[in-house]
User: Which sequence fits this backbone?
């Protein structure tokens, strides 16, 4: 019965109930079963457990009813006989306690003494467990064929039943019976014409159990009679014998019994010898005329394979509440999505507070969460996330590494991805600046090509100037490799192209500086020999050799420890930073160190040549440009190290663009000014410092 009641409690979500029991084995055993099967198993909690004593103690009854009134439990389970319950109900009526859902045991669910106009307003809607009602085929027809002259002698129970049913007496009647108007029994009276409990087949409950018990024994004996001598189950392969039948032999065959009654109920026994239980679920219906009617609204069966199976018709149940719906009986309402349970100290597990989940964790009240299909999501993410998050969990569930909790903490959503993108303002500004620098280089190159025959272009090796402009274009363009989602090829190319482009640029400047110094020395007596080391071929070879060294460094770096794209989870909890890891810090340091050494060397040589005559004032421009270049890259290192995520790439791009613009403006700005705005100074005499032609 307890397990059947627990099925009803689970069906309606009643996890918070009070328990009233009788002070005997019937009630105490029920209390122990509820404690083990309902409380300790985690199905629910008992708000209180009270014992109904045999004595009609009004003080104790008032105390128990006060406990019921003060409790938040709206469901009250009563495991007691009707004698215990009737005293309790009198006190319930006196205190006018309403709004409770009563659960009755089979001992009082069908008791008519409670179905009165005084008690029914408080007890209507009661649900309870009753012994299974069944049908016994042929029993009614058999009873209707009973006749006193056929089935009994003078003192038989049949005659007594006949006289009681038809209010008559068989001859000879007692003295004065006829005179008092009493009828004589003929034995031919018709049982169908009277109302009698004996032939009422509508409520066979204990009788149905007796019927199943008799048939179980019959099946067991029949099985035993089928035993073949020498192949029996007992010692020596013997069989049981009806003439010398032992109880343990009957028990052996009873344990194997398994049949289904014509009413559809399975009869068998478990390993403990207990019959598979089956109970009807009854409900007290309050009729409009004030009467009460006991109606069947379902059943609870225990299957050998499925356990307890509840079948209930909720539409038939009468609920004695204004809402006409099942009441809520919980100590604490279920925690909403995004929160977790925190038990209240000193109270049952059903009583708890709801605490929001921390960032990165979720909870959801559905049994199985949904399947999060992110296939085809942005950037071709293709995965499925299945989370099993149960309602009222004690702990929130952490989201997977690539996901983060939603603001409501009820589901995991993909983390935002961060990198220097072409679609954000910072990326757009850097891209535009890079393209602008590239275009300016192209324009300057066009100007120099158009005026390639003029003295200012031809002075100091115009070929180096063209190479320098091309390398500056590459410097501007290589910054674009740092913008956009990092991929393997962009990670490998960005530093390689950057390193080679800047070495090519600085190599050209270094050679130009050395040429300036050599020309100055050659202008002095006996210094012409120095120019033979700085011819056109030597200049080209120097640039190629210096650039090839950087190319070799980049190749060795990529082969040994190639830069790769990487998801960084350390900077932010709710974001994934896509970045390129350099692979080898040593390789990156050698690349920057080589560029720096060439720049410092160029700056030193230009600084030595700063006091040359004005006719060779390009050395001053080179000195100024190298100072800008070195200042930018010295400031770059600490800024790069301290910048997280995409801002590190932005710092590197800014350093590339700033140094490139510094070189472009410092080296070519004055020359373009003369070519375009002061053409009168673009003569050989002006270049040689002999004045300006008019």
Assistant:
């Amino acid at each position: 019965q307890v397990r059947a009641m627990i099925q009803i409690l689970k069906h309606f979500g009643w996890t918070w109930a009070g328990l009233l029991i009788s002070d005997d084995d019937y009630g105490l055993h029920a209390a122990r079963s509820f404690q083990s099967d309902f409380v300790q198993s985690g199905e629910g909690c008992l708000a209180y457990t009270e014992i109904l004593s045999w004595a009609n103690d009004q003080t104790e009854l008032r105390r128990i009813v006060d406990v019921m009134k003060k409790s938040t439990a709206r469901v009250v389970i009563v495991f007691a006989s009707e004698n215990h319950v009737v005293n309790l109900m009198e006190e319930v009526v006196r205190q006018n306690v309403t709004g409770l859902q009563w659960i009755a045991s089979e001992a009082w669910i069908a008791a008519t003494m409670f179905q009165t106009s005084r008690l029914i307003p408080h007890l209507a809607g009661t649900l309870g467990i009753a012994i299974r009602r069944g049908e016994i085929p042929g029993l009614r027809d058999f009873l209707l064929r009973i006749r006193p002259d056929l089935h009994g002698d003078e003192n038989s129970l049949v005659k007594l039943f006949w006289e009681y049913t038809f209010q008559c007496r068989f001859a000879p009647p007692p003295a004065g019976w006829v005179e008092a108007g009493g009828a004589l029994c003929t034995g031919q009276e018709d049982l169908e014409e009277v109302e009698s409990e004996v032939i009422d087949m509508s409520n066979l409950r204990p009788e149905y159990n007796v019927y199943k018990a008799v048939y179980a024994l019959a099946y067991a004996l029949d099985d035993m009679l089928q035993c073949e001598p020498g192949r029996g189950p007992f010692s020596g392969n013997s069989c049981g014998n009806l003439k010398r039948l032992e109880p343990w032999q009957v028990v052996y065959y009873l344990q194997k019994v398994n049949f289904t009654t014509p009413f559809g109920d399975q009869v068998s026994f478990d390993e403990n010898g207990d019959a598979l239980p089956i109970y009807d679920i009854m409900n007290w219906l309050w009729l409009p005329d004030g009467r009460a009617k006991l109606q069947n609204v379902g059943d609870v069966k225990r299957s050998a394979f499925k356990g307890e199976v509840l079948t209930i018709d909720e539409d038939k149940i009468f609920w004695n509440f204004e809402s006409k719906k099942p009441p809520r009986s919980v100590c604490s309402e279920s925690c909403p999505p995004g929160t977790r349970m925190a038990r209240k100290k000193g109270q049952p597990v059903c009583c708890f507070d709801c605490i929001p989940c921390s960032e990165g964790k979720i909870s959801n009240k559905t049994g199985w969460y949904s399947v999060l299909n992110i296939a085809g999501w942005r950037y071709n993410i293709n995965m499925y996330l299945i989370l099993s998050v149960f309602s009222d969990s004690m702990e929130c569930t952490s989201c997977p590494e690539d996901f983060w909790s939603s603001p409501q903490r009820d589901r995991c959503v993909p983390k935002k991805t961060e990198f220097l993108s072409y679609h954000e303002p910072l990326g757009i500004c850097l891209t535009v600046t890079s393209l602008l620098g590239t275009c300016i280089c192209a324009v300057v190159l066009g100007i120099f090509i158009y005026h390639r025959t003029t003295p200012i272009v031809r002075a100091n090796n115009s070929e180096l100037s063209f190479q320098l402009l091309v390398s500056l274009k590459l410097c501007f363009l290589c910054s674009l490799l740092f913008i956009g989602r990092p991929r393997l090829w962009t990670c490998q190319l960005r530093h390689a192209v950057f390193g080679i482009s800047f070495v090519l640029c600085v190599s050209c400047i270094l050679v130009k500086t050395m040429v300036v110094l050599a020309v100055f020395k050659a202008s002095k007596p006996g210094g012409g020999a120095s120019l033979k080391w700085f011819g056109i071929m030597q200049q080209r070879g120097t640039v190629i050799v210096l650039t090839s060294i950087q190319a070799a460094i980049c190749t060795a770096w990529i082969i040994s420890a190639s830069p790769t794209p990487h998801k960084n989870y350390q900077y932010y909890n709710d974001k994934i930073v896509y970045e390129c890891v350099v692979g080898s810090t040593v390789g990156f340091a050698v690349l920057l160190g080589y560029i720096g050494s060439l720049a410092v060397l160029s700056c030193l040589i230009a600084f030595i040549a700063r006091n040359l005559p004005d006719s060779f004032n390009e050395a001053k421009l080179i000195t100024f440009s190298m100072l800008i270049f070195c200042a930018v890259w010295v400031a770059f290192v600490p800024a790069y190290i301290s910048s997280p995520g995409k801002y590190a790439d932005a710092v590197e791009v800014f350093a590339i663009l700033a140094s490139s613009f510094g070189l472009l403006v410092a080296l070519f700005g004055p020359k373009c000014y003369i070519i375009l705005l002061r053409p009168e100074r673009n003569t050989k005499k002006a270049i040689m410092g002999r004045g300006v032609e008019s």
Notes: The chain has a mean pLDDT of 84.
